[in-house]
Structures are given as C-alpha cells and as structure tokens.
C-alpha cells in the first residue's frame, strides 16, 4: 500500500484526490457509495504489477476530493466533467474503465457520452438501464418498493444525514459493507438505518483497519457528498432526454455477485441472461456471475475480480 502515490489534480473547478500506481496502459477505477478510492486497493496493486497504470480517484464529494455544497452540482455531467478533466490533466487520451455501484452508473454514462475516451469497460453490480422517457428511475423505484426504499429515503436533503448522526460512523460503514441480504432494502423512518442488522464479526476480507480508514474519511466529510448522487437522479433523468434510446458502443464485460441486491431485483436476472442488456450494450462480450458473492465483490473476492479485469482488458492493449 505504501507504493501507492497520492496526488491532487485540479479539474472542472474542483480539486480531486487520486491514488495511482504503475506504468503502462491506464485503468481508471470508479468507486461507489459509501466508498472511496480505497475500495480498489487490491486491484491497484494487482493490476499495476501486470503492467498497467492504475488510477483511482475519490469522486466528487468523497474523501479528500472537494465536495460542493449544492446537490445540483452532482449530476452525471458534473462527474464526467471531473473525470474527463482528470485524464486530460494527466495527458491520457483513452482509458480502460472499471466501475462499481455508483461508479458503474458513472461508467455507463461515460461510455454513452464520451466513448472516444474509453478503450473498454469492466463494470460491476449495476446494469445499464435505458432511460424510460415517461418515468424517472426514482418514481419507478417508488412504484415498485414504496417510500421506504433506500433510494427514495435518500432524496430529502438532510434527512438521512440526521439518521446517520445517531450512529457511530464505523458502525454505518460496517452495516453497509457486510450486508449479505439480497432483498431490496426498505427502511421505515421510525426504524431508521440504525435498525439494520449489525454483523458482530467482520468477514475475512474486511479488517478493522479497513473500516477505520473509511470511517476516518467519512468523519471528516460526512455522507452528504455521496448522498447527493442519489438526489440528482431525477435531474439526470431530465437532462438526459436527448440521449434516450442511445446504445453503449464500447467493448464491455459485466460482473455481478449472485447475492447482490442488484442481481435480485425484479426481472434483473432475465434482463442480463436473455438479451435485454445486450440490446442496449451491443458490444457486451462477457458476463460473469460470481457465486456466493454479495455487493462489494471487488473487496470480497479481490484476486478473482482482478483476474476478471485483466483477462478482459489485455485483449485491447
């Protein structure tokens, strides 16, 4: 870990912290919620040893990267502006892109809007969902699961922050990272996130040191930056109207754990296996379903995930 370099890059009006290591073709790693560059620690070390320059930023609102206060400054256009500015400042023309969770959402948009900057994509957990011209993703979620569904609960500024403030930050991180319940998370207000089950024992792939690293950064920044991505979902839907129906045309590998909440959503498995995803991602070349693996697969099965990434991207060097 001490070999990983930490620098700050000015991009798109903010200062962005990046962790990087290695030389060779560049891989840009995009983390999710509630995570940091640190979620890619294993992949940075593994893939840099195989001849790649690995770059993992703290995305806008996270860790040591700036966090604008207005939630409307967290649209996918802002995030992509940060990332294109980042690779421009590093003198990089095209990257291999690797995303997970919210990072996967950003990666899909990156490939949709700037395919000229992407060699190939390895995406995890979150499938590409074409824009519904009639109804936003938040409204679809509310119709399916009700107001207590976590994405709906995240919409009101300050509400979830108040809930989180009643818990120790390390406990919040532990709840998220160790959850293995594949059912859609619905959290009634009267119960709150503190009502989610605690895992008394950390899994073998997660240490107290890891938990404390996340907790230390979120103690400094709070969770608002990350929550603002959810609060821009409706705004993204409005702004993306002109791209309705557009396909993603870069080479793609998709990886998901069979215990992941996303994989157990209504119709998700059929969408992946019966051609739905391929319809909108025509250059989808590989799909890997990891057995007995939950949402945070890049940390739970780091060597396996690193191998999946390497085996795919080496074809495009």
From TrEMBL:
SUPFAM superfamilies: alpha/beta-Hydrolases. Residues 27-133 form the AB hydrolase-1 domain. It is an enzyme of class 3 (hydrolase). Pathway: Secondary metabolite biosynthesis; terpenoid biosynthesis. GO terms for molecular function: epoxide hydrolase activity; hydrolase activity. Keywords: Hydrolase. Homodimer. This is soluble epoxide hydrolase. It comes from Populus trichocarpa.
């Amino acid at each position: 870990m001490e070999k990983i370099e930490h620098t700050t890059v000015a991009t798109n009006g903010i200062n962005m912290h990046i962790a990087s290591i290695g030389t060779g073709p560049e891989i840009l790693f995009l983390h999710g919620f509630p995570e940091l560059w640190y979620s890619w620690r294993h992949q940075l070390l593994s893939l840099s040893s195989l001849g790649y320059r690995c770059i993992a930023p703290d995305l806008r609102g996270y860790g040591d990267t700036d966090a604008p206060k207005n939630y409307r400054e967290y649209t996918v256009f802002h995030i992509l502006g940060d990332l294109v500015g980042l690779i421009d400042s590093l003198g990089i023309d095209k990257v291999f892109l690797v995303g997970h969770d919210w990072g996967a959402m950003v990666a899909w948009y990156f490939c949709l809007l700037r395919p000229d900057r992407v060699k190939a994509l390895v995406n995890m957990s979150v499938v590409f969902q074409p824009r519904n011209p009639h109804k936003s993703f938040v409204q679809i979620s509310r119709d399916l699961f009700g107001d207590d569904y976590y994405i709906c609960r995240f919409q009101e500024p300050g509400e979830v922050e108040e809930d989180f403030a009643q818990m120790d930050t390390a406990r919040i991180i532990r709840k998220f990272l160790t959850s293995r319940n594949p059912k859609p998370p619905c959290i009634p207000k009267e119960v709150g996130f503190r009502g989610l089950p605690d895992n008394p024992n950390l899994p073998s792939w997660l240490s107290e040191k890891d938990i404390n690293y996340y907790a230390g950064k979120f103690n400094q920044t709070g969770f608002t930056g990350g929550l603002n991505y959810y609060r821009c979902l409706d705004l993204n839907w409005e702004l993306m109207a002109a791209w309705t129906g557009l396909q993603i045309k870069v080479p793609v590998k998709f990886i998901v754990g069979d215990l992941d909440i996303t994989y157990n959503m209504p119709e998700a498995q059929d969408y992946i296996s019966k051609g739905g995803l391929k319809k909108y991602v025509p250059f989808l070349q590989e799909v890997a379903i990891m057995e007995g693996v939950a949402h945070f697969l890049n940390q739970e099965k780091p060597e396996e995930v690193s191998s999946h990434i390497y085996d795919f991207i080496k074809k495009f060097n």
